[in-house]
Design brief:
Blueprint (H helix, E strand, L loop, with lengths): L2 H40 L4 E5 L9 H12 L8 E6 L10 E5 L2 H13 L17 E4 L3 H16 L4 E5 L2 E5 L7 E3 L9
Antiparallel strand pairs: 1-3, 1-4, 2-3, 5-6, 6-7
């Protein structure tokens, strides 16, 4: 066997090993990123994000939380709130309000009640046009993007349901099929 043929075989073998290692490294990096994102999302498990709640310069957050408590019929005490602030949102839209509660049970009760009660802007400010207000889990940037892409893929592939609950993203084709957990962007190819 000539030196040229040996060199070609050795080069091909090196490329094969490198390709296998690249695949393994990519998979490991993806797994580590998913673990990190799950941990970051878990840190928000006591938070809710209120979208489309009008923002005013003279905004009185304790009064807003009191109104929310009355509308949802869930007592929210001052001691139940760890933090409240507006976060950066989409330019040209109302900045979302994030509330961090002292425990997850209260957050879950708020989320459940918000599904039953249709909140509107008039509930908080009677002098403005009626627009719906939504209460959702406070997602990390990664999970916001993953949810958006999953919804797009789910529609294109005939899935009827796509939802995010308790830090996990799911899709389901119809009422008779089981839910499928989406962990990362790589899972979108498997839908």
């Amino acid at each position: 066997m000539g030196i040229y043929l040996r060199t070609v075989i050795i080069y091909a073998f090196i490329c094969l090993i490198r390709g296998q290692n690249d695949t393994l490294l990519r998979r490991e990096v993806n797994d580590l990123r998913t673990t990190l994102e799950d941990m970051l999302q878990f840190n928000r498990n006591r938070n809710v994000q209120i979208n489309d709640l009008p923002e005013r310069e003279d905004e009185d957050v304790p009064t807003l939380i009191g109104k929310l408590s009355n509308l949802l019929r869930i007592p929210i005490m001052k001691s139940d709130i760890q933090a409240v602030h507006r976060i950066r949102g989409v330019p040209g839209r109302i900045r979302p309000l994030v509330i961090q509660f002292s425990n997850r049970q209260l957050r879950d009760a708020i989320m459940e009640a918000s599904r039953r009660v249709r909140l509107t802007s008039c509930d908080f400010y009677p002098d403005i046009p009626r627009k719906p207000i939504y209460i959702n889990e406070h997602l990390t940037r990664y999970y916001k993007k993953l949810l958006y892409e999953t919804k797009r893929n789910a529609i294109d592939r005939g899935y009827k349901y796509c939802w995010f609950r308790n830090g996990k993203l799911f899709v389901r084709r119809d009422d008779q099929t089981p839910a499928i957990r989406v962990h990362s962007f790589a899972d979108l190819d498997l839908l």
